[in-house]
Description:
Shape: globular
Largest sheet: 2 strands, parallel
Amino acid sequence: FPSTRPLRSWRANLQDRCLQLDDWIGDPLNIPKVVDISRLFNPQSFLTAIKQLCCQMQGLELDKLQVFTDVTKREVKQVDAPSKEGAFCSGMFLEGARWDMSSMTLEDSKPKEMF
């Protein structure tokens, strides 16, 4: 599909994607400490792979696995070790809602505020 981004922004995003993949290629058997979901071409396949890996490690059935998401206040640079179960992900965005960091809850979006 054609991109509506300006060329400079598109190129910077492509470089960030390539950098993330290059870092992963350096150690392909281990999941990076933090994965930026927005930089993956198919993020759903990554999340499915994480679910499969957790099922294999714990001997669970994939059909019965429940996914839980914890939102943390840590910045990407503050994560010093990979997740014990699952993965730390960044780059997730909301549409039609906003995340309130003070109360750690999902709130209605503010009127006329896009981002």
